[in-house]
Amino acid sequence: MNAKVHSELRAIVGDRGIVDSPTRIVPYESDGLAILRQRPELVLLPRTTEETAACMQVLHREGVPIVPRGAGTGLAGGATPVEGGVVIGLARMREVLELNVEDRFARVQAGLVNASLTRACEKHDLFYAPDPSSQRACTLGGNIAANSGGPHCFKYGNTTQHVLGLVIVTHDGEVLELTESDVEPLGYDLVGLFVGSEGTFGIATEIKLRLVRRPPVVETLLAIFTDLDSACETATKMIARRLEPSAIEILDKLTIQAVEDSVFAAGYPREAGAVLLTEVEGLEEEVSATSEDIRAIFSECGAIEVRTARDDAERLSLWAGRKGAFGAMGRVAPDLYVADACVPRTKLGAMVQQTVEIAKELNLRLATVFHAGDGNLHPNICYDRRDQDEVRRVLEAGRRILESCVDAGGSLSGEHGVGLEKLEQMEYQFAAEDLATMCLVRDVWDPDRRLNPGKLIPLRACMETRAAFIGKTPQDIAR
Ligand SMILES: Cc1cc2nc3c(=O)[nH]c(=O)nc-3n(C[C@H](O)[C@H](O)[C@H](O)COP(=O)(O)OP(=O)(O)OC[C@H]3O[C@@H](n4cnc5c(N)ncnc54)[C@H](O)[C@@H]3O)c2cc1C
To answer: How far is the CA of 267 from the centre of ligand 1 (A)?
Structure first.
């Protein structure tokens, strides 16, 4: 990028909005999937929609790839600037623009951290329901781009069910308002289409989100098991019997031990083979009836102990252990690869077994945490990125785990998205025609394919679609 363009961008975002020094730019080389890294040419940190649009106009004119970034907590390489170019970070856009208590919505800038929204509305007895375990760091814009989930999304639904509107900046710097009418929306659901687009359709700068009323009563239960199988069987039974807790989370032995050794220590028993954490919400009678049924299943499935949080402090501590689980794994090895895949809930037990076997065959240390209610597995592989052979085995394990989940009728992602990590497996899950159709949709939003290039859809599929449309071979296009 020449000096003239550089100063044009600096004039838009100011000195504090530009990161170009070799040391300050390092954190932008990757997201939480630190195994894959690439340095961007420049990082821009605009403060408003208008500044974002002005930056995008310049970058469009110059033909520079653009990678949107929230807090960089993604685990699939989504914010990694794999083709270089410029990262546009939303971290300075963190205002709550409107809090409408009567109609229960908030309008926020996209760089607002997830947990800050709940903090901003808790005095009104409202909260923002999707609660990724990273919610104290990740941004709402990142949540939208990845359609994030979280422990309580079993009851409340993933991010997409909470987004009422968006302001986005398109690839060429145009500002579009996609907010839906408060009454019955008409026409195509463009907000729904944008959610989960992983930064390939535009940059979300402002978001209108649904807020939910706090339930009057919440009961948190921790069931302790000697083995992981029994915990999985319990989760399957709870759902088969149509019990509706708001969350069902399972942690295995290695995770429990790492949590208990860390600052997130929650009092989980170290000797347990697995713990199942569940929560029931609603009116008092409803909560006590459901909890009673759940306790009956715990004992049927061989729980050796069941604990009930006695107050908010104990409840928060039990959750801190679960939410801090990935961070706690830092005590086991310097790096962690968090796989993310979904299977039908009845196959959870078998799939957990399969991941254990894959890790054993490849001589890797595996810890497992999962959103059992959603059939969403997170096999966590501990490794050291300085060991090239181990890195190769980790990637191989990731591929095999994902493919096994697809074979079991599941999906490549429960909540982390495709990013860079699952690009190849997209061809395993989808037929060429499906991918070609996705490319056509992507091209409507970003015809030059410069928004977050190299993510979500494998380039080969894109090349073939474009070739078919303009009568050239993929080789011609590649040239
Ligand atoms: C400890 C830990 C726990 C986690 N737990 C969960 C969990 O429970 N559930 C879950 O779903 N995920 C979880 N994650 C993954 C991650 O936090 C989520 O994917 C989160 O939504 C990413 O938000 P971010 O702001 O960090 O986005 P980033 O990582 O910066 O970006 C994620 C993707 O969104 C795009 N993007 C970012 N902002 C915008 C924007 N404004 N407009 C358009 N595109 C944008 C990026 O290009 C990228 O493709 C966890 C991660 C960690 C490290």
So the answer is: 29
Q: How remote is the CA of residue 413 from the centroid of ligand 1, in Å?
A: 13
**Which of ligand 1's atoms lies nearest the C-alpha of 202?**
43
Asked whether residue 478 carries a pLDDT value surpassing 60, the answer given is no
CATH no. for 3-89: 3.30.43.10
Full 3-state SS string of the chain: CCHHHHHHHHHHHCHHHEECCCCCCHHHHCCCCCCCCCCCCEEECCCCHHHHHHHHHHHHHHCCCEEEECCCCCCCCCCCCCCCCEEEECCCCCCEEEEECCCCEEEEECCCEHHHHHHHHHHHCEECCCCCCCCCCCEHHHHHHHCCCCCCHHHHCCHHHHEEEEEEECCCCCEEECCCCCCCCCCCCHHHHHCCCCCCCCEEEEEEEECEECCCEEEEEEEEECCHHHHHHHHHHHHHCCCCCCEEEEEEHHHHHHHHCCCCCCCCCCCCCEEEEEEEEECHHHHHHHHHHHHHHHHHCCCCEEEECCCHHHHHHHHHHHHCHHHHHHHCCCEEEECCEECCHHHHHHHHHHHHHHHHHCCCEEEEEEEHHHCEEEEEEEECCCCHHHHHHHHHHHHHHHHHHHHCCCECCCCCCCCCCCHHHHHHHCCHHHHHHHHHHHHHHCCCCCECCCCCCCHHHHHHHHHHHHCCCHHHHHC
Q: Do domains 217-327 and 333-423 have the same CATH topology?
A: yes
Q: Kindly list the domain boundaries of the chain, sorted by start residue.
A: 3-89, 217-327, 333-423, 430-478
Task: Place 468 in a pLDDT band, splitting at 50, 70 and 90.
Answer: low
Give 1 or 62, the one with higher predicted confidence.
62
Whole-model pTM? 0.94
The whole-number pLDDT of residue 477 equals 54
What's the CATH number for 217-327?
A: 3.30.70.3450
pLDDT band for 263, please (50, 70, 90 cuts): confident
Q: For the domain 333-423, what is the CATH code?
A: 3.30.70.2740
C-alpha 88 to ligand 1 mean position (Å): 14
